[in-house]
Structure formats: structure tokens, C-alpha cells
Amino acid sequence: MYPESYTKHSMKNVSIYIDLVFCIIVLPVMVMIFPVERWFHNFQWYVTTVGIWLYALYFLNRSVTLPLLFKSPVKRRIAFVLIAVSLAITYILSQITLYNPKPNIHDEGIVRILPSIQQYQQAVWSLFMIVEAFSFAVGLLTQANLQKSRRRAVEAERDKAEIELYKTQIKPHFMFNTLNSLYGLFLTHDDKALESLEKYISMLRYIHTTSRHDFVTLSDEVGYIRQYVDLQSLRLNGMTTVTMDIDIENDSLMIPPMLLVTFVENCFKHGISPVEKSGIYITITGKNGRLTFSTRNRIFPVRRIGEHMGIENCRKRLELLYPDAHVMEIDNDGVYFHVKLCIDLSI
User: Fold this and answer.
1) Of these four, 91, 162, 245, 257, which has the most CB atoms within 10 Å of its CB?
2) What is the pLDDT of residues 155-173, one digit of tens each?
3) 206 and 242 in contact (C-beta within 8 Å)?
4) In this structure, is the dihedral angle defined by the CA atoms of residues 251, 255, 261 and 266, taken in order, positive or negative?
């Protein structure tokens, strides 16, 4: 698979070539169908104005109008306004009276369908439709290729995030620490031993099964986070408290798997101490199709290789999956680390 930057660069080059072909060959050839030389000789200012407008319209559609049609509803409305404005400008240009044709005696008795439309007016509207059709066709093709490239990039980032997940969550010290905690529970005949073992197995199963899915239900993802917190809590002493506040109206909302747990894991990496009191606070709220997720923990300086890689992967996935539908705020004052993430899952 080609890198995303290489794909975008190739697509940009193709778009430039298509624009040059249209501006240098296609549009001039279509213009020459009409008696432009005679019009230019008599109405140079008008022909020049129309020509500039047609080229400006082409690049306006390619650079602004078409991309906006693939954005949020508000931006789509802006695109329709631009289309309406372009129609209005073309109508104004076509209504300018350059001359009044003399009546032809040979036309007496002939009923014309559109007797009031002059040839130069027909030319303006014909060239307008050609520019609109060509620019929209090329723009749609470009956007389709961009969407395809974006999907490929999402898959690549998902694979990178999955690899990072295995490195940070299923790495040996995590499994050994958890297994040691389970072993201690069984030795002491703790009532939570079997339940904790089931959660550990269920968590491993969830990681392997969801690695092939692009989206999972929010209820499944929240259940995985609960299991993760429960297992991590096994190794905590009385110095650390974990508080979870979950309020979800619709559990069937879909979310990329293992997107939120990276932030939860970060809390347990840097927010616990065996000798100082600390607290981990996790809040998950889902209302009206909007997910609000936040974590807060104290910072105990423990350096680890690649400690920011997981959050950066999540940031990239969010930018690819929800480019106009998410807001992420990270606040680090040196004492507390706070993450707040809002995603519009209804889009």
C-alpha cells in the first residue's frame, strides 16, 4: 500500500493536469464554436468579462463549492448558496443588452420558440453549463478518490493503533502483574478470584475479536473499559481511588473499538503511587447521539519509552474518522492531567 502522502501528492498532480487541459484546450475549443472574434471586435469588455467569469467559476467549483458539499450540513448549505450566486451572476451577464438585431423580412410568418434570446446570450448559458458540468464531474471524481484514500488511511491507522494496543496493554508486564494479582486472590480464596479471571479472559477475547471490526457498540466498549479498570484496580492499595461515572442513553451507538481505553490506561500509567494519595476520575456520557468522555488523574513522573504514542494514535484516528465532528482538549499543568473528548456519533 502506498503511503497516504504519496497518494495525495499523485492525486494533486492529476488534478492539476486536468485543470490545465480544461483551461488551455477544452474551454477555448468550446468558445470557438461561437462567433467570438466578431463579438470581441465589437464588445471587447463583455467578452473579456465573461471569459474571466467562466475561469473563475471553474476554480471556484473545484476548490470551494465541491469540497463543501462533502462537509457538514452547514457547509453544504454554503455550497448551495455559492451555486445560487453563480447562477445569479451568469443571469446578470446574459441580460446585458449589447445590440438590438434588425428585423429580418425573411423571418415573417416564422414562430420562434425563444425569440428574445440572442446568440451571445445562448453562448453565455451554454458555456456556463459546460463549465459547471466539467468542474462538477472532475470535482466528484477527486472527492471520490479522496474518500477512498481516507478509508485506506483509516485502515492503516487502525492497524497501527492495534499494534500499539498490543504493545501497551498486552505487553508482558501487564499480563504478569494481572496474573500475579489473580494468583494472590486464588491463594487467599477471595470471592472475587473467579470473577476477576473471567473478566481477564473476556478482555483478551474482546481485544482479539474487535481487531477486525471498524466499529463496535458503545455498550461493548464501555464494558471493556469497566473490565480494564477492575483488573488494574487489583494491584492498587488504599492510596489510590478510582471513580467512574457513566451515563449513556443509547448503548447501540457505534464507536471505533479500543479508542477510549488508551486514555484510561494513561491514568493508570502516570496517576498512581504506592505512597501518596491519588485519584483517577473517568466520566462517560452519551446523550442525543453525542459522546462526552473525560479522565483526570494526578501526575507522578515515571518516564516510559513511547509514552505519548498511544494518545497520538488516537488523535490521528479521530482526525480521520471524525474530522468535523469531534473536539479533544488535553490539559497538563504538571500536577494533574485532564482529557476531555466530545464526539458526535450521530453523523
Assistant:
1) 257
2) 777 766 655 554 454 445 5
3) no
4) negative
CB atoms within 10 A of CB 324: 10
Give me the mean pLDDT over the 69-77 stretch.
85
Q: Is residue 309 a contact partner of residue 269, using CB atoms and an 8 Å limit? A: no
The dihedral through the CA atoms of 113, 119, 122, 126 has a sign that is positive
> Which residue matches cell numbers 499543568?
333
**Backbone phi and psi for residue 20, each to the nearest 5 degrees, phi listed first:** -65, -40
C-alpha closest to that of 210 among 272, 145, 266, 257? 257
Q: What is the β-pairing status of strands 326-332 and 240-248? A: unpaired
What is the rounded average pLDDT for all residues in the chain? 79
Alpha-carbon distance 77 to 300, whole Å? Answer: 49
Q: Please, what is the angle between helix 261-270 and helix 309-321, to 10°?
A: 160
3-state secondary structure the chain: CCCHHHHHHHHHHHHHHHHHHHHHHHHHHHHCCCCHHHHHHHCHHHHHHHHHHHHHHHHHHHHHHHHHHCCCHHHHHHHHHHHHHHHHHHHHHHCCCCCCCCCCHHHCCCCCCCCCCCHHHHHHHHHHHHHHHHHHHHHHHHHHHHHHHHHHHHHHHHHHHHHHHHHHHCCHHHHHHHHHHHHHHHHCCCCCHHHHHHHHHHHHHHHHHHCCCCCEEHHHHHHHHHHHHHHHHCCCCCCEEEEEEEEECCCCCEECCCCCHHHHHHHHHHCCCCCCCEEEEEEEEEECCEEEEEEEEECCCCCCCCCCHHHHHHHHHHHHHCCCCEEEEEEECCCEEEEEEEEECCC
CA distance 113 to 269: 79
β-strand pairing of 240-248 with 278-287:
parallel
Poorest-confidence range of 87-96, 178-187, 254-263? 178-187
User: 247's torsion region: left (phi>0), alpha (psi -120 to 50) or beta?
Assistant: beta
Neighbours of 132 (CB within 10 A): 19
Rg (CA), the chain: 31
